[in-house]
Design goal:
Distance between the termini: 28 Å
Mean pLDDT: 85
Shape: globular
Low-confidence stretches: none
Radius of gyration: 20 Å
Strand content: under 5%
Largest sheet: none
Number of helices: 16
Structural class: mainly alpha
Length: about 400
């Protein structure tokens, strides 16, 4: 039987834009932890570090869909250079403000500018959507992209922390800026696979977030991000509570491993089940998989629980991405994909903040309750989307 992933890379230009996208998207997971590591060293304040990192994350969550909206209207080659330049300047301002111990407002200003970075993941997915439109292999392409997202979130944070600690405090975010610039530049060189700009009948077409189905899918991704952020913080706190902090990284790696494994398997399947039903199944599995987290009593049990929780993550996210193609107009696909990715990142940040407060107040075990509530939100959103599609079969 043919390897569906090998078949993907027979597409002319695919390997080039995938590699470019992998470089460019690595900047995002490096930046938040890079800011925290940098400022905790330079200023000795985790409150300041967390605030600046939050400013970056929230700016990215709010601005990246607007950047993608412009990309859909004018094309990647016209919009991405300016967005990337502004973001890289922001990284430079942030690094200089840290190095020179400048006023705190300059740190926030730099973080906000840096948060203007484009969603490279959405740009690559949009290229796949153009190349594989209406074909079953689009599911495989989205699966590949989700797995690569997981890879960057595994490799990016330790790379940023290592550079900041072993080289100099600002090295982590400077590397993130460089990867963003190189990755976007390499992506823009692949003009033959750039999605064409689709003419619009109305240049003032409304933002896709105004569509009810898009809002539900974005909320679903926010809830999934809450689970991820909670697992990150609560696992580290749980390991420290048991006196085995070094094992936290292995636990988090098991979550990513479960998601990557499930994503690769799902991408190789050929399914005839409607996407909305798959989303409902994935949402239900996500909710059920959060239950064991509240009952873990040791590190091995936690590792198994988060591995199981990770199994439903990638397939559910892949289905949500595929549904976007059914919901939004063709000329707004990049914007739609970006809203989901922004929702996920906002959810991760919110989950980390909420679970961190719960850990401080009630302990690590109690923080896992946040993931249970988020899992319930996932299945409710999935059920709502499924019901709306059931009432409008033509969407499928």
């Amino acid at each position: 039987m043919n390897n569906p992933y090998a078949e993907l890379f027979k597409t002319p230009g695919a390997a080039a834009f995938v590699c470019a996208g992998l470089l460019g998207r690595t900047a995002l997971p490096m930046t938040g932890i890079g800011i925290i590591t940098m400022l905790s060293q330079r200023h000795g304040s985790y409150t300041l570090a967390g605030g600046v990192a939050a400013a970056f994350v929230m700016t990215y969550a709010l601005l990246s869909p607007q950047t993608s909206r412009l990309v859909d209207r004018y094309g990647q080659s016209r919009v991405l250079p300016l967005a990337t330049v502004i973001s890289v300047i922001g990284f430079g301002l942030l690094a200089c403000a840290s190095l020179w111990q400048a006023a705190h407002w300059t740190l926030f200003a730099g973080a906000v500018m840096a948060g203007g970075m484009p969603s490279v993941s959405a740009m690559v997915r949009a290229r796949w959507a153009t190349l594989c439109s209406g074909q079953a292999r689009l599911q495989t392409a989205y699966s590949l992209e989700t797995v690569l997202d997981e890879v960057t979130f595994i490799a990016g944070p330790p790379l940023a922390v290592g550079l900041s600690i072993m080289v100099f405090a600002e090295a982590g975010i400077m590397a993130a800026a460089a990867l963003q610039a190189v990755g976007v530049a390499a992506l823009l060189r692949q003009r033959q696979t750039e999605p064409p700009v689709v003419a619009r009948g109305d240049s003032r077409q409304a933002a896709v977030i105004g569509l009810m189905d898009m809002r539900l899918l974005t909320l679903l991704l926010v809830a999934m991000g809450l689970i991820v952020g909670t697992v990150d913080i609560a696992s580290v706190a749980f390991a420290e509570h048991l006196g085995r902090p070094a094992l936290a990284s292995l636990v988090l790696a098991s979550y990513a491993a479960g998601s990557c494994l499930a994503g690769l398997v799902y991408g190789a399947l050929v399914l005839s089940v409607p996407l909305s039903r798959l989303l409902l199944w994935g949402g239900a599995a996500t909710a059920v998989a959060t239950v064991p987290l509240v009952f873990v009593g040791n590190m091995s049990g936690l590792a198994v629980a988060v591995f199981v929780a990770g199994l439903s993550f990638a397939p559910t996210m892949i289905v949500a991405m595929s549904l976007v193609e059914k919901i939004v107009p063709e000329q707004q696909l990049t914007e739609g994909l970006t809203w989901l990715l922004s929702g996920l990142n906002a959810g991760v940040a919110l989950g980390a903040a909420v679970s961190g407060r719960i850990v401080d107040a009630y302990g690590a075990e109690s923080a896992f309750g946040t993931s249970l509530c988020a899992g319930l939100a996932v299945v409710l959103c999935a059920a709502w989307v499924h019901a709306r599609f059931a009432l409008s079969p033509q969407k499928c």
